[in-house]
User: What shape does this take?
Amino acid sequence: METDKTRAEKLLGDYNFYRTHTDNYQKQLQARPYMRELKGTPDRLQLFNRLDQWCIVNGLDSRRFLYAQFKKHKWLFAPPVNRLLPGKKSLKVAIERYHILKEAPLLTNRLNAEHEHAQQMRGEIFSINRDVSYAAEALKRRYSYVNQLERCIDEMFTKTYGYHPKSRVCLNCVEAHRCMEKLRASVPFDIVGLRQGRITLQECRMIAGQTRNVR
Assistant: This one.
């Protein structure tokens, strides 16, 4: 279970990572090849914790929101840490910007790498049939916001991977049951049970009769 401090530290790590991809950082790096990343001082971590808590209250993913802040500035410079939290006047626009964000490749790659590392530490390999994909979650969230639920279902075999009982988006979707039934009918094993952790990949492979049916 992640603590508030751990979540704040992850946001700081994301911030430092995105900062290296800004034009301003790259220009300064030419003159100062040993530029340091921002340290996790108590005051700085408190600011990231406030951002995280604000995002939770507003139903937003704090790591994706942080990415949107960098994209807002077109990756020219890193937004000041003490200005990441939007004010009253910019609140609505900031939330709208978050929801219309289509892709976040740097964040997606970073989270996938973290997920793969965690699985490797447990001796596991990522499975589309079993695990929650961050990229798919982001796409589901966008389709839900723009009310394109039919498209979300139609792309379950290529992009969204269908209903997942551990997906926050799916749990709040009005089409969750229909999506789940379509997903179940598409494979010869209990894919929902697999995603719930009630059965294993090995058991599904035995039921399917061939490994290629279970990714």
Notes: The chain has a mean pLDDT of 88. The chain has two domains: 4-101, 106-213. The CA atoms of residues 16 and 54 lie 20 Å apart.
